[in-house]
Amino acid sequence: MELNYYEILEISQTSDKETIKKAYRKMALKYHPDRNQGDKEAEEKFKLVNEAYEVLSNDEKRSIYDRYGKEGLKGQAGGFGGFGDVDLGDIFSSFFGDGFGFGSSTRKKEKGNKYPQDLKITTKISFKEAVFGCKKKIDFTYKSFCKSCKGSGSENGKLDTCPHCGGKGQVGVRQGFMTFVQSCDHCKGSGQIIKDKCKTCHGNGYEEIKDHIELDIPEGIDSGMNLRVQNKANELPNSSQRGDLYIKIIVEDDDKFIRHDDDIYTIVPVFFTQAALGKIIKVSTIRGEADLKLPVGAKDKQKFELANEGVKNIHNGKLGSHIVQIEIKFPKTLTDEQKNLLLQLEKSFGLADEEGFIEQESLFDKIKSWFSH
């Protein structure tokens, strides 16, 4: 059984216009395609909600519908698809904010500046520059409002109302039964246009000026961090000083070292005899060479910490650690003498008979005994 328009909006037949409008807002939000992507049932219900509202919000159409039903509306001028006095932009932006994708046909874009006062740039530094800090020359370009037109971009300093949007900054675009509102292309959403461009800035309202600073980059800075320099960014017409310059730091990778927070990581190759004997090995750190005493029988991939050999924390000044992971290396080729020496070593552990063959059962027992001590 087909629902009538009152049932679609979940209201009674005696509902007044305000109740109808509120019900429409509620149901339109509930079934809107952007909230129910891929849901065909919701899409159909959304169409019915709009159809019901168009009829019930219009006194003449509602009167005909109440007396004759949908049959009585056949042949009515305009058909279905209009939205009466309800602005979809108002409905959806009131619930989701202006970023939902609709604008109000009666809402004029807020006039602002042609560019932001603050300026964001990026600069690259080396791994060691980040660790130890450095002084770096930074070149950049900032915007300064045109003094001839006072930032308006117009020769006479005045702006005219955009004839395409009537000064609203937005235009309606109809797609099927829906009307979408988008920013006016001619005035870029400002609602105003320039008839005679300023000869100095060519209508931009600003001039671009090259500048540079000597930036002190602190020890321990990490990739992605920002440094702020006050009063070095863009200049606006109604401001007594320039904005702030934000410099995002990008730290280049290093061939030897990997950084995680305040710790430095390296992989150090170790000959198998050094690991077996627990030798002292040399480790390259960011501050030079350091000695690392391996334990007897050090294992492959085992990690060791060199305290206070990492990066200085940019906030509290504490030094991180240098984490060393050893990678045990074995010779790929052996001389006859080296082979004999290794066989003798193998025999000394009781792992081989005179012919050099290891019995698997005795090997298992030997290995098991190592871990029992």
List keywords for this structure.
chaperone, 3-stranded mixed sheet, HSP40/DNAj peptide-binding domain, zinc, cytoplasm, Helix Hairpins, 373 residues, 15 strands, 4-stranded mixed sheet, 9 helices, metal-binding, zinc-finger, alpha+beta
Structure report:
The protein is an alpha+beta fold. The protein has 4 domains: 82 residues, DnaJ domain (Helix Hairpins, Orthogonal Bundle); 84 residues, Urease metallochaperone UreE, N-terminal domain (HSP40/DNAj peptide-binding domain, Sandwich), CATH 2.60.260; 72 residues, Urease metallochaperone UreE, N-terminal domain (HSP40/DNAj peptide-binding domain); 34 residues, no CATH class. The protein is 25% helix and 25% strand. The protein contains 9 helices and 15 strands. It has a 4-stranded mixed β-sheet. The chain has a 3-stranded mixed β-sheet with strand order 1-9-8. A two-stranded antiparallel sheet has the order 2-7. A hairpin with a 2-residue loop joins β4 and β5. α2 packs antiparallel against α3. The radius of gyration is 38 Å and the shape is flat. About 9% of the residues have low confidence.
Briefly summarize what is shown.
Pfam families: DnaJ, DnaJ_C, DnaJ_CXXCXGXG. InterPro entries: DnaJ, DnaJ_C, DnaJ_domain, DnaJ_domain_CS, HSP40/DnaJ_pept-bd, HSP_DnaJ_Cys-rich_dom, HSP_DnaJ_Cys-rich_dom_sf, J_dom_sf. By secondary structure, this protein is an alpha+beta fold.
